[in-house]
Write a structure and sequence with these properties.
36 strands; 8 helices; four-stranded mixed sheet
């Protein structure tokens, strides 16, 4: 008991000494300032002629907060070094809280606090003091500013402002892994004593978690397993006065969740599974399901199922991503008569494996699945999945095409009946023997109409008509040379009267509806009556024909009895397709293209001298112009009423050559003007193709020469 009292007394004495030392440390600057102030005052030179300015002997005052005041409490004293304490000095206090919180004795300058103070609301007060002569009211000392600081006491509890706290950390994390940091605050003065110095400790959550005392960082202190415990509630305490007795404390709860990692292997629920499948089941049929468990969650529990061995050709297994089941399906049709039992090995493997746990063993498991094949009445089976047959076109009705064959795979070996399905058109062309599957034609076939025929043949069990199978049959009609060659188009060939012998004037080809493996070879020739006196010959290359001009004479016989000179003269003067040789007057073609309609009856003019200017004017009006149509009507009326017009019908033909062409007209009208001085000697240098043009436009003699 005495020892306890001794320790308690020693602790209290140490605490009192510590507070005293801290108070002296804070007041030490004030003492130094006062000392310097006194030194400055004593160093001033004295003079009887002028008054020496004296200083105050105070600077900063302190008052403790949270005092329950029943009467004014002494704070300090304001005093001038000139005050002789004869009541001539009067002290005046102004500034923050003057008169309401702080009071001053006018005679002695003693300060008192009359209200309870809270440092957390206001930590200091700035006031002003002045000493005056009570009788003259004149200043004895200049107005000066001083501060009253509120001294802190430990009256605030720590607070966790960021709660509630929640964190997630992977399971099996190594010791020392940081989880989360919690932070508390204290409203007391952090620069005065230990009132705001906090210390963190863990109340609940050991031995898996710990907290750093100064920072509040929570760390892993022991191995955690999510499959054992998924969530932890850790309680952290924050205490001021660096955790000493008498300090305030507060707690916060931190929820820590463990996230999953792939640290567990999948395991099948059973070591052996039994399943059955009918031999009639189609490919893709679900046979059964197997299931493996994994203690992990999410993608760490994702797994894949596989089949090992030769059974993987007949069966397959897929993973249902929602249920994590392995679905066994039929990959290839099974036959009861061939094999009735299968034993397969299935394996499950984790998709995502954590390399940190590879040394703990393979993350997989295996099981056996035994599948029994059940017998079923199966449809007939053709000897081939499809048949290709051939027959020559034009074969007689009843000719043999081919045969199909099917059998009953079951032990009952039921008889088979054959038939042709699809449209009536095919049934009119082909027929099948219901007992033996022989196919014949019912009418001759034409390859040029249809080269291939596609039919479908069915095989049905005689004892069970519901069991039926189908097979496609492709019939190729072989070609027979039953068509003569044909010209693909009508040929109309033009040749110049001055064409030279041997000149190519036309290329002719032929086609044949029949088929030929090596390609068609044709023989071309002129008909016998055209060979002797036609002036033409052909060159046969057995593919196409080249028509060659072989002139028997250099010039054709003239169709006119008149002399050539007269004929040429009429052409020059007439220059249109009018009424004939005697019609040497022609319509003014340019008048058709002028913008102004000529409504008066005018006699025809000779256009020989004006042909060039009129041609240029003719480019101004198009044939679709209303003016054009109106003028044609006027000209018809004028021709009917003209007494000088020929007494026979006259056909006037005009060809519109368009307007706006930069190339100009190709007409020979006015060529005697435009072509004057032109030389075409260079045409003879352009080769054989321009030989004729060189003769026509090259140097030549006049008609008189």
């Amino acid at each position: 008991m005495d020892e306890y009292r001794l320790k308690g007394s020693f602790s209290m004495n140490c605490h009192t000494s510590l507070c005293l030392v801290l108070t002296m440390v804070q007041l030490w600057p004030c003492f130094l300032s006062m000392q310097r102030h006194s030194v400055q005052n004593t160093d001033q030179p004295s003079s009887a002629a002028r008054r020496v300015k004296r200083g105050w002997v105070w600077n900063v005052f302190f008052v403790e907060e949270e005092m329950n005041l029943t009467e004014p409490v002494y704070v300090g004293q304001l005093k001038s070094d000139l005050d002789k304490e004869d009541s001539t000095f009067k002290y005046i206090l102004t500034g923050e809280g003057a008169g309401s919180i702080f009071t001053i004795n006018e005679t002695t300058g003693v300060l008192h606090v009359i209200q309870k103070l809270d440092r957390e609301k206001k930590a200091l007060y700035t006031l002003r003091a002045q000493a005056i002569n009570r009788n003259t009211q004149l200043p004895m000392e200049p107005e000066s500013e001083f501060v009253i600081k509120v001294k802190d006491v430990n009256d605030q509890k720590p607070q966790f402002l960021d709660g509630p706290y929640e964190a997630t950390v992977p399971e099996m994390s190594p010791e020392g892994t940081s989880v989360i940091q919690v932070t508390a605050t204290d409203g007391d003065d952090p620069y005065y004593g230990y009132n705001a110095r906090l210390l963190y400790s863990i109340i609940q959550g050991q031995p898996y978690f710990s907290v750093e005392p100064k920072t509040g960082v929570i760390r892993i202190s022991s191995e955690t397993d999510r499959e054992t415990q998924e969530k932890y509630f850790v309680i952290i305490q924050a205490k001021d006065m660096i955790g000493q007795m008498g300090g305030f404390s507060e707690t916060a709860t931190v929820t820590i969740n463990l996230s999953d990692i792939n640290d567990n292997a999948p395991k099948f629920q059973h070591t052996l599974y039994h399943m059955t499948v009918s031999e009639a089941a189609p490919v893709g049929t679900t046979i059964g399901k197997i299931m493996a468990d994994d203690s992990d969650i999410g993608e760490n529990a994702a797994m894949n199922y596989v089949i090992e061995g030769d059974a993987s050709y007949v069966f397959d297994i897929i993973t249902d991503n929602e249920t994590q089941e392995g679905v066994v399906i039929l990959k290839k049709k099974v036959d009861y008569e061939t094999k009735r039992k299968y034993s397969i090995k299935a394996k499950v493997i984790n998709r995502h494996i954590d390399e940190r746990f590879l040394n703990e063993g393979p993350f997989e498991d295996s099981t056996l699945v035994r599948i029994t094949v059940e017998d079923a009445d199966e449809p007939p089976v053709f000897t081939s999945q499809e048949y290709v047959m051939e027959i020559a076109e034009g074969s007689e009705s009843g000719s043999f095409v081919g045969a199909v064959n099917a059998s009953d795979p079951d032990n009952t070996n039921s008889p088979i009946r054959y038939a042709i399905v699809h449209g009536m058109s095919l049934k009119r062309l082909f027929s099948i023997n219901a007992q033996n599957g022989t196919i014949i034609i019912t009418k001759p076939l034409d390859r040029e109409i249809t080269a291939w025929h596609n039919i479908t043949v069915t095989a049905t069990e005689a004892r069970n008509p519901e069991q039926i199978s189908e097979a496609p049959v492709y019939i190729h009609v072989l070609d027979v040379n039953d068509h003569a060659p044909e010209f693909p188009e009508y040929y109309e060939t033009y040749v110049c009267e001055n064409a030279e012998p041997g000149q190519l004037i036309q290329t002719i080809s032929a086609v044949d509806k029949d088929d030929s493996v090596e390609g068609h070879h044709f023989y071309f020739s002129l008909q016998e009556e055209a060979t002797n006196n036609s002036g033409f010959s052909v060159r046969d290359n057995q593919v196409f024909v080249l028509a060659i001009l072989a002139l028997r004479q250099q010039r054709k016989k003239s169709l006119f009895s008149e002399k050539a000179e007269e004929f040429r003269e009429n052409i020059v003067r007439y220059d249109d397709e009018g009424g004939g040789e005697e019609d040497t007057e022609a319509f003014d073609i340019a008048a058709l293209r002028t913008r102004t309609v000529m409504r008066e009856h005018k006699p025809r003019r000779n256009i020989t001298t004006e042909i060039q200017s009129l041609y240029r004017q003719s480019l101004q009006v198009g044939p679709d112009s209303a003016v054009f149509r109106e003028f044609i009507s006027e000209k018809l009326k004028e021709a009917n009423a003209d007494p000088n017009a020929p007494p026979y019908d006259s056909l006037q033909t005009y060809a519109f050559e368009g307007t706006g062409s930069l190339a100009g007209s190709l007409s020979s009208l006015g060529s005697h003007v435009s072509d004057m001085g032109e030389s075409y000697d260079h045409l003879s240098e352009w080769g054989p193709r321009f030989k004729r043009l060189a003769k026509l436009y090259g140097p030549h003699k006049t008609a008189r020469d």
